[in-house]
Amino acid sequence: MRKIQVQGVHHITLVGADRQTSIDFWEGLLGMPFVFEQPNLDNPGEGHLYFDPGDGRLITIFTNEDRTPDNRRTPTDPGCVHHLAFNLSRAVFSQVLERLKARGIANSGVKDRGFMDSIYFKDPLGLLIELACYKFEPPVGCTHAQVMLEAHKTRVAAGDDHIMEVHLADAIETLVARTQGTLSDRSGAGGA
């Protein structure tokens, strides 16, 4: 049977409360430009706000002025969204705790995930948000996913429980060897 091959996330749509709560959070806190607005074409009583998360794709929010924010944790039952994660540069990530504190937003503190660092907090409607920062940059022409695949293979071969920085470094070396040519013998120029 033939696949329906996807080529990335087109957009994610969330059910929001009022319009201003969405603008204050998505653009005001997370810096996502508010780029488009129209009625919800399936429910004209709602607004449909569009935000750019930084990669040209979209986060969209259905708003209704009759709904008010409720920051109790959203359901985590099977089929529900557990959290949304957004990529940050190391420079911005290093400022997150200070900036959340300045706004009085409770958070998890920095969590070391082996291949990335993460900070978690809830949006005004109780959805868990993760701000993540990779511990590596992929080689030119490669993606983070390709590095993760190679690091996973290295981790499994080593019998390690989770991906660590050594696996990332080895994965990057493997990808460079695979994608970049050299005139020398790759068996260890310069020693060990």
TrEMBL record:
Pfam families documented for this protein: Glyoxalase
UniProt domain VOC: residue ranges: 8-134
Protein known as: VOC family protein
